[in-house]
């Protein structure tokens, strides 16, 4: 699998290359001598998967342990569930337990000396993730990235610095279906500076009947409103639709109009290829409990482009904004740490950093390139089976509607789907059969076959369960 | 011990009562038939201590495990160290390991269902500490308190709401020796609103040659500057001197001048009696890794007085500011949670909440009243031994100078001391002998015999080591 896609780069695909995923999946099927829709195909793909061992780094919930499973509908209660929910909460890396115990042991054994001793020295542990973060987001160097706080806290800390409204340029551009936390954050920042939501927001809307924001429409809106926009703040991959935005193009066009352009990479990091330094992104932030598997409420991340490291914008400060080596001189003024580190406020929690590291190490070991190649095939396979389900079912091709872009260059792992039946009802039926995925109001189900732990067989199992559920629903 | 101090209330003492601590300690000594300066006294006090079993809830570092210990100077390398550093990082509650493992197990077993299931359901776990926090800070009800983020982050979130400068009232009053993080936070808030440190800060200074801020001087400064002061932000117990501020009186006098009055309770919570609702405190915040034993970088706490729950001040928002029951309706505007909960931004980390709970439960079990009574005696005992050391040593009563107030009503557990020799040198010598305490620049050593895990024998052992070190230093 690795070899035959050696030439694939960004997200497993070159932009100028044939991207007929079904075609390349079918070639695999032919080489195995099976049909693409057979269970054997999935089994063969798993065998050929160079990352097949990565799954063993994670603990999978079993069927019988899930609160929603109806055991009378399950053949093997001890079997691993069909977990397609990495978009919400990634699975637990097995090593997390040992790392967490190490944090506890160090505290127990050393008391306050745990601040500077051991594998996760409390006062420096946040620095340990920098190299990994540089690679995951495509930063230029470790000064551009930092882990701290939670995502929404970081959105605020970034906007305090980067949203500097003036009389003529005070608006913030977001999209109409932004994640609520981002919208609430942005609106409260507008309010802080005396602007109302109505006046201060420029909201990107999809065209009537469409789910996906077209890049051309975003660029047109920037062209139209840009001179009044202080900050453009969008998500790298959309939580609801799974759409991946063209970060480079949008950033460039926003900056050409004098806007600062920041990105919420919650659903992008660990999921799609990012080169945010090269793309000249001004600032970015992300959470780590989705594709990076750091656990609920995990410590979040921030990127500040190098060009802003010395531009003296207002910034919230704390003692952790200070350089490490002079911090305990306890001066009256901050002796600022380099780059993104100066955005830190508090001493970091080693318990959360250790969990973050447990997840990141698996990415280091697997290699993001290989994960991207696998993700491309895995999502393409899910897409094909969903299409097959729709077509095979009496030719109703709207049976299952995938609203995520069909072009793999415009998405990551997640497919968002709609059904002609109640999505809540379908979701409940799937859950009873051991499928874990989620629903976002008003009407999509999110399916994220995650390259680090999902198999082609997981996707195939999901497909057979869904087929069954759909038949039930039609009855 | 309990009985004979039954009438003691606030911090173990009634304000109108005889507070000659040495006298009451001496009565204990007489009743044991030993001298107050003998090791037997400490042993007897430990036997009489109704909280003597509480210590067994904590893991004590042993002599041999500490990085600074010189084993050639230690008789029993397996003995517990002399830990007087609860002011910096409290010791690990033994149960923390099991709770942390429960968080990990739940994540492993349930995946995303860990959000709503199990002992520490990720999406609600932060609510579990509210009852304890109400008691510890003296809130009126659970709506007034919340745990979230780190302390300095919370200082900023509070000041965004409560620091609303106007042309004539834009100053912030802090004290000259405020903890750096607090000062950096306050100054960056001033800057955000366009004020400079020079113009915007009103700094309370001690009188020449004094270490302790006199309440009368604070009140005089409020009287003088109050009409221009938007916010008074002080610490409940001072990190450097150990002084406990008269929160009630200062709050009242600030409010009489039209100021809002907020408190950083980092060194006060779990250490001194707090009734911040009754004292009419506008807002407060604290960290939990000191006396509350939640571990480095532990989740922090916030108090918002009920009177501010509906005053519509600007506030940073996130999806966690929203009511729990409507959060996933993902509306465009925040449907605000009650009171302090509306200051939350992010989904909480169960790993940190579980550690917080491990510490809080011990407080619940021991009872804050009993802890305060013990603290009063323990600190008084340390004070007496330090005085004794000074006097016994050739009558030089400045041998060890305690800068913390001598009046136990004006302090908590911490004594801050100065020496006629290099404090760094003394500190190193103490550390070599298994004493854990810290030094804060420029010149104090902080000693915190912590009621939840320290014994009278710990204090006595410290005294004998210090005596030895002082003799060495004089040589
Ligand atoms: C009074 C005071 N304020 C602020 C802080 C900083 O706390 P954090 O790093 O948790 O934000 C401390 C830490 O010791 C403190 O004692
Ligand atoms: C796009 C986006 N923004 C913000 C958040 C909120 O994150 P947090 O609770 O970590 O602040 C999420 C959480 O899923 C998200 O997906």
Automatic annotation (TrEMBL), chains A, B:
Its main location: cytoplasm. Its cofactor is pyridoxal 5'-phosphate. It comes from the Eukaryota. Pathway: Amino-acid degradation; L-kynurenine degradation; L-alanine and anthranilate from L-kynurenine: step 1/1; Cofactor biosynthesis; NAD(+) biosynthesis; quinolinate from L-kynurenine: step 2/3. Pyridoxal 5'-phosphate binds at residues 151-152, 179-182, 235, 264, 267, 289, 319, 347. InterPro entries: Kynureninase (IPR010111), PyrdxlP-dep_Trfase (IPR015424), PyrdxlP-dep_Trfase_major (IPR015421), PyrdxlP-dep_Trfase_small (IPR015422). It is found in: Cytoplasm. Its EC number is 3.7.1.3. Keywords: Cytoplasm, Hydrolase, Pyridine nucleotide biosynthesis, Pyridoxal phosphate. It catalyses: 3-hydroxy-L-kynurenine + H2O = 3-hydroxyanthranilate + L-alanine + H(+); L-kynurenine + H2O = anthranilate + L-alanine + H(+). The keyword Transcription regulation does not apply. It is an enzyme of class 3 (hydrolase). The modification N6-(pyridoxal phosphate)lysine is found at residue 290. The keyword Iron does not apply. PANTHER family: KYNURENINASE. Homodimer. Catalyzes the cleavage of L-kynurenine (L-Kyn) and L-3-hydroxykynurenine (L-3OHKyn) into anthranilic acid (AA) and 3-hydroxyanthranilic acid (3-OHAA), respectively. HAMAP family: Kynureninase. NCBIfam families: kynureninase. Belongs to the kynureninase family. This is Kynureninase.
């Amino acid at each position: 699998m690795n070899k035959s896609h050696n030439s694939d780069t960004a997200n497993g695909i070159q932009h100028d290359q044939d991207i007929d995923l079904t075609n390349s999946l079918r070639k695999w099927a032919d080489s195995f001598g099976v049909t693409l829709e057979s269970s054997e195909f999935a089994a063969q793909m798993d065998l050929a998967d160079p990352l097949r061992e990565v799954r063993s780094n994670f603990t999978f919930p079993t069927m019988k342990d899930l609160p929603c499973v109806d055991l009378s509908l399950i053949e093997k209660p001890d079997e691993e569930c069909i977990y397609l929910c990495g978009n919400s909460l990634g699975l637990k890396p097995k090593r997390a337990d040992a790392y967490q115990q190490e944090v506890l042991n160090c505290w127990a054994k050393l008391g306050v000396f745990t601040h500077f001793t051991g594998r996760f020295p409390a006062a420096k542990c946040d620095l340990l993730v920098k190299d990994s973060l540089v690679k995951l987001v495509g930063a230029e160097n470790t000064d551009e990235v930092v882990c701290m706080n939670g995502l929404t806290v970081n959105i605020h800390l970034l906007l305090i610095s980067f949203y500097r409204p003036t009389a003529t340029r005070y608006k913030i551009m977001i999209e109409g279906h932004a994640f609520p936390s981002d919208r609430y954050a942005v609106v409260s920042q507008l309010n802080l500076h005396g602007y109302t939501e109505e006046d201060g927001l420029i909201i990107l809307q999809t065209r009537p009947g469409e789910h996906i924001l077209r890049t051309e429409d975003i660029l047109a809106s920037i062209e139209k409103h840009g001179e009044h926009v202080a900050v453009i703040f969008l998500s790298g991959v959309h939580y609801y639709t799974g759409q991946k935005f063209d970060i480079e193009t949008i950033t460039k066009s926003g900056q050409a109009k004098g806007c600062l352009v920041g990105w919420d990479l919650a659903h992008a990091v660990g999921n799609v290829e990012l080169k945010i330094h090269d793309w000249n992104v001004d600032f970015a932030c992300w959470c780590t409990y989705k594709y990076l598997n750091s656990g609920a409420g995990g410590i979040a991340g921030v990127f500040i482009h190098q060009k802003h490291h010395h531009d003296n914008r207002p910034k919230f400060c704390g003692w952790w904004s200070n350089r490490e080596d002079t911090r305990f001189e306890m001066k009256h003024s901050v002796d600022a740490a380099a780059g993104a580190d100066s955005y830190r406020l508090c001493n970091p929690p080693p318990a959360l950093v250790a969990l973050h590291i447990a997840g990141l190490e698996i990415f280091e070991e697997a290699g993001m390139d290989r994960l991207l190649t696998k993700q491309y095939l895995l999502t393409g396979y899910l897409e094909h089976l969903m299409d097959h389900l729709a077509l095979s079912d009496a030719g109703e091709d709207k049976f299952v509607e995938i609203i995520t872009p069909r072009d793999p260059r415009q998405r990551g792992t997640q497919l968002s789907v709609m059904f002609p039946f109640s999505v809540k009802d379908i979701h409940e039926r799937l859950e009873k059969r051991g499928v874990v995925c989620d629903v976002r109001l008003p009407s999509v189900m999110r399916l994220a076959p995650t390259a680090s732990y999902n198999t082609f067989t997981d996707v195939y199992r999901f497909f057979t369960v869904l087929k069954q559920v759909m038949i039930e629903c039609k009855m």
